[in-house]
Structure formats: structure tokens, C-alpha cells
Amino acid sequence: MPSLPERIGFMGKGLSGKSARMRYGRFDDARREYVIHRPDTPLPWINYLGDDTFVGIISNTAGGYTFYRDARLRRLTRYRHNAAPADGNGRYIYLRDEATGEYWSPTWRPTQTQLDAYECRHGLGYAAIAGTLGGIEAQTTYFVPLDETLEIWAMRLTNHRSESASLSLFSAVEFCLWNAHDDATNFQRNLNTGEVAVASSTIVHKTEYRERRNHFATFSCSEPLAGFETQRDAFLGPYRGWDRPQAVERGATSNEIGVGGSPVGVHHVRLELQPGETKRVVFVLAYHEEEFPARDSSGRKAPDVDAARRAVDVFLRPARVDEALTALREHWERELGALQVNTGVPDMDRMVNTWNAYQCAVTFNVSRSASRYESGIGRGIGFRDANQDLLGCVHMIPDRARARILDLASTQLVSGGAYHQYQPLTRQGNDEIGSGFNDDPLWLIYAAAAYLKETGDTSILDEPVPYGDDREASESLYDHLLRAADYTTARLGPHGLPLIGRADWNDCLNLNSHSSDPDEPFQTVSLHDTDVAESVFIAGLFCLACNDLVEIARRRGDEATERRLRTAVERMHTAIDTVGWDGDWFLRAYDATGAKIGSRENAEGRLFVEPQGICPMAGVGLDDGRAASALEAVDRDLSTDHGLLLVQPAFQAYRPELGEISSYPPGYKENGSIFCHTNPWIVIAACRLGQAERAWDVAMRINPSHREAISEVHRCEPYVYAQTIVGRDAADHGRARNSWLTGTAAWAYVAATQWILGIRPTFNGLTIDPCLPPDLDGFEAVRRYRGATYDIHVERGAVPGDAGVIVRVDGDPIEGQILPVFHDGETHTVHVMLGHAPCEGAP
Ligand code: BGC
Ligand code: NOJ
Fold first, then answer.
1. What is the structure's pLDDT at 803?
2. Whose CA is nearest to atom 11 of ligand 1?
3. Nearest ligand, CA of residue 676?
4. How far apart are CA 703 and CA 174, in angstroms?
């Protein structure tokens, strides 16, 4: 098969005229790093520091920002989204040669001085950015130590000159006044609130501490200071940007404590470096919260800076820094150790082993709240998003997945519906970004089932959980799941399909909005009559989730519920068969007038990808040829070199009866881009049909590593999935947008590991049921599961008779493909022999 760049040869050039084959870095698989070798990547290529408590976003040129728990309410540093030049504000460092007055940023930004050497290594939870100019090498490793609410910038400065160097070093952050929304809008107030203090080498940001806040930030340095700045204007000078700070140019700071304005933290350090000498300098930016605020000598509330410094100063020692970085690396090795594979295909292995798993963990931590594309002030943890995100990391972090499921359930409503999001700081659900998405509750069932299949921990089902709209009404999680299912069955439309409400998974298919007012957001506009428009997607999702719920009920011995739900699933299945099938593919929906959407009767929006994935995933159409026919249609009409389009033909004009989907230009976002999230659904559907080659092919087209060779076209980071890739209706077809925080991560991971490689948790144990393309002869994997480790060897070979697959565990053949559950802390060897025939298609 021709390689991706060969296949897309028709493009020739990327968007900026550079060769479409351009790479900006390479994977260092052994170190689990992506190494960027030039700073001017098409977009800032970012990484995440920390976990869900203390989070930093960092670009390959040190741009980004930091927050504690909630990107809106506890923002430590400012970031300028949508700024020119891109990636405004970050963790800036300037070096100044005292002999010549020349100054530069060893991370390239913000001075953008041409460096003699540059390299950024994005690793798991850290970024190490190195820049050399005129023989002075500076490498800075940025990371958040485990379980700490602080970030370290650990610098290593080396003088490669033959004579000694006299240098000034400046660090710079711009503090955010905590509430990022207010900070960006309410200037009449917040230009008069800023407060800072300086104690030795520690700059304290204490805005509003004297009134209601009990938190403050510190920015510390391991060296004695030659000076400091606390006000942006004093540091930069009026009418200057971060690229030419006046204090750096001058080589001296004002050393004044400012009030109001824009508080910054700038350290000035003087260094003499002998020829060949290396010196380590450490900066620490930290968040502090005090339960019982301290008082100063006059009795006023004041941050306990001494205590804060005692906590932070240990991290100013290089030895402690090294220890913390090692612990971080070990942490990730341990987490990723839940599943490691060796297929011999680097695009597969490095995504599964490192980057896709890591992206799943990051996305689990921050949901859709904070990235370069999510401002951090708009969205908290999304209900459907978080439920899907945990599918990709429940095997790595089962305890946190458990807690998340319970948190999500507690934002469920008594009606069985759900708040669409909740804020991480308060864990209270809210409708700020809309409500009435009728698919929402079903994802809770699916996520809980995934947790049970992974862990076998049925105790979660009996956990008492309150409701988002009635904190007193506590019921078991199991009852919550039943309410979720009943929410759907209580809301069926004229065809017996689920009512869509505001929208389903496709947020932009707004069949009940009919909005003509440009000032009302589609996601929150009030809805018209919601009793007609129906979703085939929700019908498929209902079958998918409730197949599991039926099994959960059966295992609990709740026969009445089991029977009731089984009947509900059968009815839904029949409804899809009778009114959800369009002849060659699954219909998408019925609109508010009862007209078909996603049908051959439509001139635009004839074929939507989502139901073609979810229905076969739920087992619909597997036996009657419909799923196969639907995948043929997808292949024929939606397939591009860059992945599968969400819908074709795209909508050319705004259609009020369809809503936001038709508001996007054709080829963008929900209007016919490659909305990556849906592609793994087709991979899974293909695996269910035993179509191994198709599954592999679809998975590879959106695989970031596979697309690395066309970085100049793709533009986003080649190590993580993006939400969307521009579709073929638009001139920049192939260009990815909105990287990092996307449900694509979890589904791509599930599709690759559970369906292509076939290492799939079930209620009864781990099954090994690969669906491998013909040129893959086998693979090896190590999987931790329910208290044991499986050392898995899969190979294609001669399987006698019609056995299909032979599985041996510790040398002995087993019945079927589900491995015994051991719970013994031991490692067990599993040999799986696949016949030469294509895979059968899983039940
Ligand atoms: C986007 C969707 C997103 C929704 C909610 C829409 O504008 O197109 O992808 O899910 O907003 O934020
Ligand atoms: C992104 C949203 O976060 C997700 O919830 C939604 O399903 C997709 N967009 C598709 O609209």
C-alpha cells in the first residue's frame, strides 16, 4: 500500500507552501518522548504537566499556563488565547550576555532570536526545552512533581565557550487574578486589586488574599537575586511586548513592589560561568491554600509565606528535583504498564504503549476544559465526555475511574437525565453549556459497565449516590443506571425511536432549536416542541449500553429488571430495523416534522457516519447483512485519505431545522469534517464483522504517528489525536484542528487494543480475540488485569479443524477465549493461536 504522503501526493505542498512531507521532529520511543527539532512548528505543539489537581499546559517554546483544579476559578498564570503571535504568555526565561548586552530566550519564544541549536522533548508529564546561542546552552525541564501543587522549571546552564561568561538570567510569569473569566473581562475592578510581596528569592502573588481568598501563589528561585519585578509595565516598559523587555535590555530591574495593574513575577539572577562549567538553577511556581489564614503583626490576614517557603524550598535543590523527576517517570511506567504491546508496527505500538494511553489519561483529567482550544473558562467536566474518556484509562486508573463514575452519577437528575457538565472544584452539575442532550445518561451505563468488566468490583453498584437536583434523594448507583435507561424509554417519539432533545452525541444536530437569532448560542437556546424529532444514534446507543445493563441485572439476580430491559432492547432493535434503516445504511434521525435525515431521500446530509458505527457495535445488523452494507456505504461515500467524514454531502447553507451543524462551512467540524471520534466506532463495527483489513485501514488513517510524515498538512501535534481533520469539501482538506482534548483518544485506544488486538475485558474476564490484518502475523502484549499479569503471545498458525482459535494459559488449553481470572499477583503466560482464516467477528 502506498504511504500516506504518496497517497496524498496531489497536495504537493502544505498550507504554508512547505513540502507536504515535512517533519518537525521524531519519536524517541525508548524514552517515550517526542523530540521537536525546530521551534517554528505549524502550531504551538503542547503537552500537559501535572494531573487533575495542579495542571499546566506547555508548548514547545514554553508557552502556556497553569491552574489549580479549575481552569476558570483558580488560574495561576495568564494566557492569551487567539493571540498574535501565537501562544502568548508562558514560562519565560531570558539570558543576557553582560559583555555585549545581547539577550535571547533559550526556549526561542518570546524573543524569537535565531538559536544555534534547539530541541524540545515532550515526555510524559514534562517538557525539556534546550536552546544554545553563542556557546551558552540552556536546558529547562518543566514538570509538576507527583502529589504536589507546584511546578518546577529546572535549568541546566553550560558554558561551551573557551572563556568565562558573565550572564544575567531573568525568569518571568504573569499572574492571573485567579478567576480567569473575571481577569479577562472586568478591568475596571481588577486593575486595582493586584497585590504581591517579595521575601528573599520568593515572589508572592496574594491578590485578594486579604478578603475572601485563602490561597496564594509563590514563585521562587534557587539563587540569590540581583533584582526582581512585580509589575508587567515596569518589566516590559510601556508599548513593548515580551520579546523586548526593557529590564532585560537594560540588564537591571526596578525592584519595586507594585499594587494593582498586572502583577508579574520576575527574578533577576547574575551568573559567572567558567569555560565548560555547568550550573543548575531552579525556579518553582507553587499554589498554596490555608485552612486557617495566618495574621501579620498588625492582625491582618496575611499569607504564611514562611510556611509556604518551607514547603517549596526543598524543591529548589537539584538533587530533590532529580528525585521528583525520576518518581514521575516511574509513575508513568507503572500506569502504562497496565498494557504494553509489541506488534512490530511503530505507528501502532507507540500510540498504544505511550501516546494514546497518555492522551487518554490527560483527557480524563481535564475533560474538555483547558487546552489551546478550550479557554478554560467555558467548560467543566462534560457528562457524556467524561463517561467516554474513562473507557480509555479505566485499566490504568481503576480507582479514579470509580470515583469519577460516582461523581458523574451524582450530577444525574431524578428524571434519569443529567446535567451536561459539572465544575471540578465544586462537583456540582450545571446547565451552563446547555441541557437536554438525550444521549447523556446512557453513557453512564456504558462507563459503569466498562468499569465492571475491567475490575469485577460490583460493590460500586451498591454505592449510595445523591441526585444533582435532589441531594437528599440518595439511591444506589445501580438504581441510577436503571433511571438512565428508563429516561430513554420514557421519551420515545412517533416512530418508537428515542427523542433527540437538544441533540445527541452530535452536539450540532439541533433539530428542535430552529434558531434565527445570531446572538443565541445553539447549545443553550430554548427548545421548541421536543416531542417529534428522534435519533437513530440514541437508539443504537441504547442497545449498546443496555445489552450490558441487562447482563448487570442478570448477575444481580434482578430478574424482573432483566426481563423488562431485555424487552426494551429488543423493541429498540426492532425499531431500528423497521424505521431506522434506509435501504443501504442506517438512517440518522427524524426531524421535528418527522422528515428523514441521513437518508437517500436527502440531497444534503444523506449519509451520517455515527449510526453506521454505533448500531453494529450494539450488534444491530450483524446477522442480516445490514451492518456490512452500511460499512460499504461509509467506504464509498465517506472515506478519504485522511479518515472518514462525518456526513456527506455537507450542508451548503444554514438550515434552521438542523441547527448548528449547518452553521459550519462545508468540510468543517460537524458539517462534514473527519470528526475523528467517530472513526474508531467504524473500526469496532468492522471488527465485529470480521473485516480486519478495513478496521486496520480506518484506524491508521487518523493515527497521528502515521500522519507525522505529513506534519505540514496535518499541522497539529503528531503524537496526539485531534478532534477534527478538515474534510474534502474544503480547500485545506487534511488539516487537523483542536488537538488533545477529544473523545477520539479513548475510542481510538479501545478500538486498537480491545478490537484490533482483541484484548478485551468482559464481565467474566479478559478475552483475547484479535482481528488482525493479513500481513500481521501476531503480536505480544503484557496486560495487568484483576490482580494478575498476562504475558500474551498471539500468532497465526495452523489451527486444526474448525477450532478457529486455540488459547493456552500456562501451557494448558482452555475452553473458549476468556482467560481465567487469577487474582494471585502472578504472571501467567497466554498463547493464542489464530487460524489463517479471517477473524470471525466477535459476538
Ligand atoms: C461544537 C461541538 C461542541 C459543542 C459544545 C459546538 O460549537 O461544534 O463540537 O461539542 O459546541 O461545546
Ligand atoms: C465535542 C463535545 O465535547 C462532545 O461531547 C460531542 O459529542 C462532540 N463534540 C460532537 O459534537
1. 66
2. 507
3. 2
4. 37
Nearest C-alpha neighbor of 218 from the set 77, 94, 425:
77
506 C-alpha to center of ligand 2: Å? 6
* For the CA of 669, the nearest atom of ligand 1: 8
SS3 of 494-527: the string is CCCCEECECCCCCCCCCCCCCCCCCCCCCCCCCC
Chain segment 97-108, per-residue pLDDT in tens: 999 999 999 999
Predicted pLDDT at 15: 45
For the chain, how many residues are written? 843
Question: In this structure, are residues 115 and 108 in contact, taking their beta carbons and an 8 Å threshold?
Answer: yes
Contacts of 496 (CB under 8 A, 6+ apart): 571, 575, 579
Contact (CB, 8 A) for 819 and 786: no
With a 6 A CB cut-off, is 769 part of the ligand 2 pocket? no
pLDDT in tens, 247-306: 999 999 999 999 999 999 999 999 999 999 999 999 999 999 988 777 878 888 889 999
* Pairing between β-strand 674-675 and β-strand 722-725 as defined by DSSP bridges: antiparallel
The CA 212 to ligand 2 mean position distance, Å, reads 36
- What cell does 39 get? 521551534
Ligand 2 atom closest to Cα of 384?
Answer: 5
Q: CA–CA separation, 52 vs 425, rounded Å?
A: 11
pLDDT over 60 at 797, yes or no: yes
Pocket test for ligand 1, best of 377, 508, 510 (most atoms within 8 A of CB): 508
Residue type, 289: E
Provide the pLDDT for residue 529. Answer: 83
Strand stretches in 682-814, DSSP E: 722-725, 736-739, 759-762, 765-768, 778-785, 788-796, 805-809, 812-813
Query: What is the whole-number distance in angstroms between the Cα of residue 368 and the centre of ligand 2?
Result: 9
Q: Using N-to-C axis directions, what is the helix angle for 398-409 and 440-455, rounded to 10°?
A: 150
User: Angle at the Cα of 211 (from 207 to 217), degrees rounded to 5?
Assistant: 30
Q: What are the cell numbers at 35?
A: 523530540
Return the half-sphere exposure (C-beta side, CA atoms, 13 A cut-off) of residue 95.
33
Residue at grid coordinates 437556546: 525
Strand, helix or coil for residue 545 = helix
> Is 812 one of the catalytic residues?
no
Q: Which residues of 738-777 are buried (b: 16+ CB within 10 A; e: fewer)?
A: bbbbbbbbbbbbbbbbbbbbbbbbbeebbbbbbbbbeebe
**Cα 132 from Cα 119, distance rounded (Å):** 9
| Ligand minimally distant from the alpha carbon of residue 646 | 2
The residue assigned the cell 451543524 is 661
Average pLDDT, the chain: 95
List the end-to-end C-alpha distance of the chain, in Å, as a whole number.
30
* Catalytic residue of the set 507, 582, 729, 769: 507
Q: What phi, psi does 842 have (nearest 5°)?
A: -75, 155
Residue indicated by cell numbers 524573543? 111
13 CB-side CA count, 13 A: 4
The pLDDT tens digits of the residues spanning 450-509 come to 999 999 999 999 999 999 999 999 999 999 999 999 999 999 999 999 999 999 999 999
Q: Count CA within 13 A, CB hemisphere, residue 510.
A: 25
Backbone angles phi, psi at 312, to 5 degrees: -90, -35
Say yes or no: CB of residue 506 within 6 Å of ligand 2.
yes
Ligand 1 centre from 661 Cα, in Å? Answer: 9
Say what percent of the chain tops pLDDT 90. 91
**DSSP code per residue over 722-756:** EEEE--TTSTTTT-EEEESS-THHHHHHHIIIIII
* Residue 796 contacts residue 771 (beta carbons within 8 Å): no
Q: Enter the C-alpha cell of residue 123.
A: 515526555
> 670 in ligand 2 pocket by Cβ < 6 Å?
yes
CA 672–ligand 1 middle distance (angstroms): 14
H or E element that contains 467: strand 464-467
Coil vs helix vs strand at 42: coil
For residue 8, the model assigns a pLDDT of 59
Contact 369, 384 (CB under 8 A): no
Q: Beta strand pairing status for 263-273 and 227-231?
A: antiparallel
Give the number of the ligand closest to the Cα of residue 743: 2
